[in-house]
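REVIEWER CHECKLIST
Item 1: Sequence provided? yes
Item 2: Single chain? yes
Item 3: Sequence as submitted:
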Amino acid sequence: MLKLQAWLADYWVIGAGFMAASLIAAAPVVPLSLPVFLIFLHSPVYMVHQVEEHTGDRFRKFANEHVFGGRDALTAGSVLIINLPFVWGINLLALYAAFLWGPAWGLVAPYIMIVNALAHLVTSARLRKYNPGLVTSVILFLPLSVVTIWMIGWTAGLVPQLTGAVLAILLHLAIIAGVSARYRSLVATSPQGFNVSRRDA
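Item 4: Structure as written out by the authors:
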């Protein structure tokens, strides 16, 4: 399992780039209604964002250095779990839900995207510096998520909107809680002033 994790940690971003290119290339022939097609686009666009964010393991290193005081609060294993089963999985489920039961059922995808974009913007403003993923958050995430929410939301009603928004916020809070718990554990068990930033899961 550790060997598989190490292999994925080295190559998943490359895979995301190739998958994004393939999905975008296939997009013109995907026979979906426009609202469902917008949900479909969230997967390749998120993968493009992941290439900016995680190439060279730079987001994890940035977060550990600038947010967690040099401690290994965000691990390589956590990055894999967050981005593969959670992000890719939720976007895929949102697409199937939108296709099978109507576009409103896929609203969690754009809400996850817009919450993530706002998190990048807030982090950049607070630290007064670029953080990995900021550029694609501004030029891709915000336009796509806002257009999707507007196009689907104005006919979907309030409940699907609130459901998508709440699920997106809860997902991000769960991630923050998990990483923060590890950070507190590291602080409690390490000597004062001892900083560590390694890639071990």
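Item 5: Key structural point noted by reviewer: The helical segments are 2-26, 34-54, 58-66, 76-101, 108-127, 134-156, 158-189.
Item 6: Recommendation: ____
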